[in-house]
Amino acid sequence: PLNYRPIQLQDIATVSKGLAHERSIARSMGKGAIALGFNKQRGSNAVEVGDAIKRQVAAMQSDPNRDIQMGITFDSTTFIRASIHDLLLTLVASAVLTTAVCWVFLGSWSATFNVALAIPTAIFGSFIVMNMLGFTLNTFTLLGLSMAIGVVVDDAIMILENITRHQQMGKPAMLAAQDGTHEIMVATIAASSVLASLFLPVVLLDGILGHYLSQFGLTVCAAVAFSFVEAVTLTPMRLARFHHAPSHHIITQGVSRQMKQWGNRYQTLLEWLLHPRYYRRRTMGILGSALLILGLGGWAGYHVHRELTPYQDTNRMVIMMRGRLGTPLPTMDRAFKQIESMLMKDPSIDRYIGFVGGNQVNSGRIIIQLHSPDKRPKNPRTNRPYTQQEIADGYRSSLKSVRGVRIMIQDAANRAFPDRRGFPIDLGISGPDWKTVVSISQTLQNQLNQSLLFKDVDSDYREGLPEIRLIPNRILAQQHGVSITDIGKTIQSGLSGMIIGQFSDQMRTDIRLRLAIQDRDNINSILQLPVRNSRGELLPISKLVNVIPTRTIQEINRENKRRMISITANLHDGVSQSDAVNTAHQLAKPLLPSGYQLKIGGVGQATTETTQQFIWVLFIGITCSAMVLASLFNHIRLASVVLIAIPFSISGSLISLVLTNQNLHIFSGIGVLLSVGLVLKNAIMMVEMTTNQFNKGTPWHESIITACPIRLRPIIMTSLATIIGAIPAAIMSGPGSETRIPLAISVIGGVLTSTLVSLVLVPTLLSWIKND
What we know:
The chain is α+β, with helices and mostly antiparallel strands and about 775 residues long. Helix content is about 60%, strand content about 15%.
């Protein structure tokens, strides 16, 4: 619980008397305010902290003797709670749809129930692991669970389908369970091991992104591990005891007939493709088609927009205003009131709180809490509620009428990950000569303003701050017997004050003596300060110093011991962050002499680093998967046939992102990684069944034609379970849907493309291995 001392009216009066010379003003909804901000401690639950603060505010408000209004202007936990709620709905919808797919294909409620039990087993088991590792229910862990729904049933489907096939051969239930499980055990181990090997290297990612992505990866690995254990132990036991005959429902019977037809047609297709007479001609056509898909994937990879995180409608935006250096507080307050008048008339805005002044009198900031999208007015052009970005763009245009200040609007969604200021573009210019750095930064800033990619271009270089320099005249000081140290102490005492004593009232408080505020702001009063010389005479400062009015910069930033100027910018709608960074590089390159550097910082730097780390993690995962497959199959070329599905999975994910106008970021990148692990299962089942048939004495060519159609049914079942399980995340809108939709789309595109290609390409490559 929060400890607080009740604020009394006399406390406010006492504070207000000390504000005779105000340097800051805060208002909320047109009324003066005092703002308190709360951040949770590391490791604590954000929602619980927010609820505790709300209870304290409600308790303080309930005091009838207090006439100070208290309210919560901004609460980030509202978006967190709504996003988690939508994720839980997505999780439940995925589980229901996946179970429905299993029933349609299996045609038996008992079999479906056996498969569906893998879902709570995996999820509850994952909760145990998450609790042991100290994870919370956040966006990444819940995304991992929702995407794992289609994964965890795969092992159970593989086991169940194979046991059912043995039962259809006339074997008793107990023997069918034993033989079916033993026959497919290698494929089940390989599939689960490959998926774990792809996600475990995610823990190697550095920084805050690595922290969250490792939670996603470990959550998926935990779900896969529990589903594997459940599939090879509990599922066969339940099937041996409680499996019943399929139902005679028209849907399940129709699906069963269709699967038989597809199996026969698929076998006929393989016989036609692998016929010795036309083998080379047809396989070259297959390889050519495969290369075409890879080419389309490369084209999509080149054209897909890349960024760190997607733009999210968090119901929050920040308006920043800045006046010229030396702008007084009343001028800033007038601009603040003009902006307030617009905000209070906007029905999209729930509430706001604004600040002007403080350490920098010429600056201000307004934090705006928007209504949720369902409570906002509709945009007549789209007939949908105004988005956060549309509202921000509207204010960019309307606030141009505010004179005397510069207005910038910051995307609050970028504050989710740590960077210097939360802008998607953050450039740093550094070099040995300060004037050259200033010139380069100003030229680059002008070019960025002229570009159609950037908006709200700004820099941290502030020139023109009024300054008065008092330079001691050493000759006159020596003639009058005054030391330079005494001159400095006298000026310091007048401006900053000197402690002349203390008084006690429950605590010891310093008594500081200095000039009155009106004299501290008057250079003539400062120059009349007396300083005593060595002969005991009092002389005014004006006789001992030279007064030099000048202008200077407000602050100087350094990085690696070199002065640096930072340039920040937002992006226009539809502009890729990677394209914007490349454009900035191209504009800056001819401006940089030898010894001067352009550094990409903030979100742009994090995007580049994350992309590089993702590629490295994918490489490690594929290498580990190859080692696992080679050890299980005892054949490196068989492992290579399985791994051939990876580029087609990646190509399908990238093509689906481009076709649906989605960007490549950490969430869709997770979807790409997940689809790679899923599609490898299909190739593993075909290769494993082919080797089993070959080991029984069947010729290699006939083994391929026999084994692949046998595995068609579980391949279609697992792929459809994954695709349909991802559909709720792909279509459900709501808070946080901007992260779920591209992830689900990349999974659907990767699984669909790679499954269709693998069904033809894997048998072809298997035939090549034997022919070689």
